[in-house]
Automatic annotation (TrEMBL):
GO cellular component, one term: bacterial microcompartment
Protein's name in the database: BMC domain-containing protein
Statement: the UniProt record of this protein carries the keyword Methyltransferase: no
Record's signal peptide: none
Nucleus as UniProt keyword: no
Subcellular location: Bacterial microcompartment
């Protein structure tokens, strides 16, 4: 089961936290209209990342936990409508290409 949340118009401090926890993959000029957060088992987050990138022109990064090897969630950033569409597709399980065997 995935936990999914969205932040519309993320505050500068929120973006600073996401930048720091993602290894600064997003520079300070990157100010998305929305950020979707997805948390769950690693296998589900990798599939969620694939779905998001195939759905819309969003930026996806992993957000690390207390040690660099511990990925605890994904951040999907971009236009609000695109982020929302990605989150809906993730909830639905994508296009069937990533179906359970």
């Amino acid at each position: 089961m995935l936990d999914i949340k969205v932040i519309k118009a993320p505050a500068p401090g929120t973006m600073a936290i996401l930048r720091q926890r993602s290894g600064n993959r997003w520079n300070e000029e990157f100010l998305p209209a929305a950020v979707g957060l997805v948390q769950g088992k690693l296998i589900d987050m990798v599939v969620a990342s694939d779905i998001a990138e195939k759905t819309a022109g969003v930026e996806v990064t992993d957000i690390r936990g207390s040690c660099p090897q511990n990925m605890i969630l994904l951040a999907i950033a971009g236009d609000t409508a695109e982020v929302m569409e990605c989150l809906e597709r993730i909830k639905e399980g994508g296009d069937g290409a990533n179906a359970h065997l």
